[in-house]
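Reading a protein record of the kind used here takes little practice once its layout is understood. The fold follows as a row of integers, each naming the local backbone shape at the matching residue. With these conventions in mind, the following record can be read line by line:

_____
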Amino acid sequence: MIYTPHDYQDYAANQILDKPACGILLDLGMGKTVVTLTAIDELLFDRFEVKKVLVVAPLRVAEDTWSKECEKWDHLKHLQIAKVLGPEKNRIAALKSNVDIYIVNRENVVWLVNHYGKAWPFDMVVIDEFSSFKSPKAKRFKALRKVRPLIKRIVGLTGTPAPNGLLDLWPQIYLLDRGERLGKTLGGYRERYFDPDKRNQEMVFSYKLKPEAEKAIYEKISDICVSMKAQDYLQMPARINNFVRVEMAPNEKTLYRKLEKDMLLPFTGGDIDAANAAVLSNKLLQMANGAVYDENGVVRQIHRRKIDAIEDLWEGANGKPILVFYAYKHDKERLQEFFKTSRELNTSQDITDWNAGTIPVALAHPASAGHGLNLQAGGHIIIWFGIPWSLELYQQANGRLYRQGQNEAVIIHHIVTSGTIDEDVIKALDRKDTGQAALLEAVKARVDIKSRTKRSV
């Protein structure tokens, strides 16, 4: 296929070419992979500015997305890729191959850094789904931080840079500029821009932005981060958010309220208990979905209200494929019991079959199918059986169908159990989306189409 870039894609590619460190905050479905590969190709073979390129990506994306993009576009077909995945012997064999781009899953970043030590060979590193490096305590962040001085060029790609607030930004920006803009330490960044919020004496549980801090942060990073929203540059499909509310029966509500109040629900053979607020939140989410694990790992069925709702939605789809996102293993098992012909999206062949229209009901967990997979050819109906707290997972999962190339209005059904923690999750996602939108708007690229000539590839 001939690549004729949109103007915004040209602009983003030029940002990568012109800046040794660059954050590309491209909205879902805007083609950040082909943009980055186009820039890599020019850096390798036209400008000769880099010699060895590493891409760090979620496992499913590392397995599938980058290689398929090279196969898809005529100007990229010559690029050779080695996938540093699987057992250690396979990873080592891949590293010994003479190719243009090496792709490693983020879980193996620590291994890769330890494998090379001071002999780190990659002068360009691309981090796909940059927000997965938002924790400064994570081993993957510490590993990349160690070799960052050896990296000549670095690119961070994501559509959700701060899914849970601006504190998430510091580790990502540090990997780009080594602390030049937001400071050398998280503590220093937090002290300059945040005040303690919720606390218990000396223990601080959360932080809030100081007055004018948000604007100051945006200004600090605006020269190395560019943001583009799909609706500003593309003819996006219509998106319909539908909330399907279900009601538990009185006896089911009683069980829910008892666990909520007492943090304990006794059952013969194994109680359902919650040692702290985090565990309780998890248990209540399970109960809202209709089943919950007891202390022995046995699944306790509470209700089937969401199963009944999904039956109605499936019938209403009139034979059109549906993509169902579940939260827990027992959710998946109950869905598989109801949808006998359903199929979980696990492999590259599953994705191919879904896009070919041969899977009527696809099941997926947002953590495994939420990043980088192009599923828009297979359907346009999403059903959230279990809704996640994570804005990143929620947005990325929806972006598998709601993206460029989708020819139908995308319908996103959310099954919400009334009077439960489901309602709190929806409210929390709305609040986080407001903050996320503010960040993206602040570093948004203003592309002057008239002042540039489209680069032909």
User: Anything to note?
Assistant: The CA atoms of residues 54 and 187 lie 30 Å apart. DSSP finds 18 helices and 21 strands in the chain. Residues 449-457 have pLDDT under 50 and may be disordered.
